[in-house]
Design brief:
heterodimer, A: 10 helices, 0% strand, globular, B: 312 residues, alpha/beta, Rossmann fold, 2 domains, 6-stranded mixed beta sheet, 4-stranded antiparallel beta sheet, 10 helices
């Protein structure tokens, strides 16, 4: 195992983030604050409690997931797309590193950013609403698991993309709708039966609900199912990445 | 395992067919000797970069085998790659990274523990030390080229690949690079450079390989290559134009220029007698006067052009 290389890639990716630290922290803090002003204060006061949780508190896990998913995909896809785009990938490919080490370095760094981002949003949310975390360890577990999984997904996206447009289009066209329709801002029990059934095909529903369960001990779907679906999605991403490196897809001619 | 007289790189039957169906390499066999400077010479699109890219692990071979110091580049890629430093043709750098940081990154990527002294040595030798904290995007093209060399040398490779190292580089930097290459060889580093500047191969290389259309046409010691293929020409500037070569001289390999003012005699430097003395006597006997004479030696460039031309 070339641990030195993993550490080097990991540090390199994180340092890119630290160069833009202010905007990296400020933008999620500002957008989260805006969500709370709009959904929490303006609309939330007219909403009934959901499962005995005030609306403002109800949306906290969903808001964190929303940002974590978007940022995970954005950071991880950019992280691997950039060296492909500017050509510096040659060095990684010619180095004595295995693909497991490459993925660990890139995805590890992107996931680290996502977890930190999630915690920053959590801290910001605590300024606006009162909420409790019943299962803090599970909360961290879901946060880490989701971050890693979606960073893996972002990594695949960054390898698949052949231009900046493609890099943007998947998050905008697929991930954002799935997140908004995934019960971030509502309980899927509030939907008509048909839409409830349809929602169960949305993987984000399981992520958000597993995460929400760790806060309030209640969710629309069982926590075991949530965990299982998250792990399944992760396994699929890992299988795709293994295939990418075995075939050299868009990395090696 | 590896012994000193074993080639440091052994390529056998190497074939590369790209997905487009284009066959870039058509069964390359090539041995690189330990500690030599090997120049791979060929026109654009000959397969130079593909060959290097396969050895370095950037392109996958279609068939054939490559070993680096006895390590198979596919099965034992870690051992093989850790011996190699690569300076690619394109200037590809992380624009926002400072110079020293990018060299440290390269060293770490190759699994070497941090060594500030070595990084400083490399940067000083490449006249980059003063720029160590400068972001790469602020450097000139020549400086960027040096940064790429510094990255390749950061992990103390035993083999250095320089793909078109002096393309678009000014004369001064070219000289500096040649000096650096010689210094590295004196430290025991094997150097493989590709170029389409003959001058570079002629100046630097111990051996020259010529590649064209994905095939190695020839590999020779530079000196023996020059000797073997080198022919000389004797040019005689005549005092008055000659209408045709006199019949008495027909047995000689002579050419007459269109204006009839120059006689060209090509002779082999390897032959026991060049025949110059007897030719000059015969010319005088024919009553042909000449004002001037000079002899020219074939350069590597001429050899190269004739080799590549034959294969077309």
């Amino acid at each position: 195992m070339n641990l030195q290389a993993v550490r080097t890639l990991y540090r390199f990716e994180l340092s890119r983030w630290f160069r833009t630290l202010v905007q990296s922290i400020l933008s999620p803090v500002i957008s989260t604050s805006l969500y709370f002003v709009v959904f929490g204060a303006a609309i939330g006061s007219r909403m009934a409690e959901i499962d005995g949780v005030s609306y403002g508190a109800f949306i906290v896990p969903g808001l964190i997931m929303l940002s974590v998913l978007t940022e995970s995909i954005g950071n991880a896809s950019f992280g691997i797309y950039m060296p492909r785009y500017n050509g510096t990938i040659y060095e990684v490919l010619s180095a004595p590193v295995s693909y497991v080490e490459i993925v660990t370095g890139y995805v590890g760094a992107a996931a680290t950013k996502s977890v930190m981002l999630g915690l920053i949003i959590l801290a910001t949310a605590s300024l606006f609403v009162d909420f409790r975390i019943e299962h803090p360890l599970w909360m961290m577990a879901f946060l880490v698991l989701t971050s890693v999984t979606f960073c893996l997904f972002g990594f695949i996206l960054g390898i698949w993309a052949t231009g900046w447009e493609k890099l943007q289009i998947v998050p905008i066209m697929i991930i954002t709708p799935l997140t908004f329709l995934g019960g971030s801002f509502y309980s899927i029990n509030m939907l008509p039966p048909f839409w409830q059934q349809l929602s169960l095909f949305n993987p984000v529903v399981y992520l958000v609900n597993g995460f929400r369960w760790s806060f309030y001990g209640k969710a629309d779907v069982s926590v075991a199912l949530s965990l299982g679906m998250t792990l399944l999605f992760m396994a699929i991403c890992l299988a795709v990445i293994a295939w990418v490196f075995r075939t050299g897809y868009r990395l090696k001619a | 395992m590896a012994t000193p007289d074993q080639p440091i790189i052994a390529v056998s039957g190497l074939v590369k067919t790209y997905a487009s169906g284009f066959q870039a390499l058509k069964g390359i066999d090539l041995d690189i000797r330990r500690g030599e400077i090997f120049a791979l010479l060929g026109p654009n699109g000959a397969g130079k970069t593909t060959l290097i890219s396969i050895i370095c692990g950037i392109v996958r071979p279609t068939a054939g085998r490559v070993t680096v110091d006895g390590h198979d580049i596919v099965r034992d890629y870690r051992a093989a790659r850790s011996l190699i430093g690569l300076v690619p043709q394109e200037l590809t750098t992380d624009s926002f990274e400072p110079v020293a940081a990018t060299a440290r990154f390269s060293r770490g990527l190759f699994g070497k523990a941090p060594d500030p002294r070595h990084i400083e040595k490399v940067l000083r030798e490449l006249a980059l030390w003063d720029k160590r904290d400068t972001q790469i995007l602020a450097l000139s093209g020549g400086m960027k080229r040096r940064v790429m060399i510094a990255k390749a040398l950061a992990h103390e490779p035993r083999i250095l690949f320089l793909d078109e190292p002096t393309a678009g580089v000014d004369v001064e930097l070219r000289r500096e690079m040649w000096d650096m290459v010689r210094r590295l060889r004196s430290e025991g580093v094997t150097i493989i450079l590709t170029t389409h500047y003959i001058e570079e191969a002629e100046e630097m290389a111990d051996r020259v390989g010529v590649i064209n259309h994905g095939e190695i046409i020839m590999v020779e010691d530079k000196a023996s290559l020059m000797r073997k293929l080198g022919s000389r020409q004797l040019a005689l500037q005549l005092s008055s134009p000659l209408a045709a070569i006199p019949p008495a001289l027909a047995g000689r390999k002579l050419e007459l220029s269109a204006d009839g003012l120059q006689l060209l005699y090509t002779f082999d430097t390897q032959a026991e007698t060049t025949g110059i003395a007897s030719l000059l006597r015969e010319i005088r006997d024919q009553g042909i006067d000449f004002r001037d004479l000079r002899t020219t030696e074939t350069s590597l460039e001429d050899i190269f052009v004739s080799l590549v031309g034959q294969r077309r």
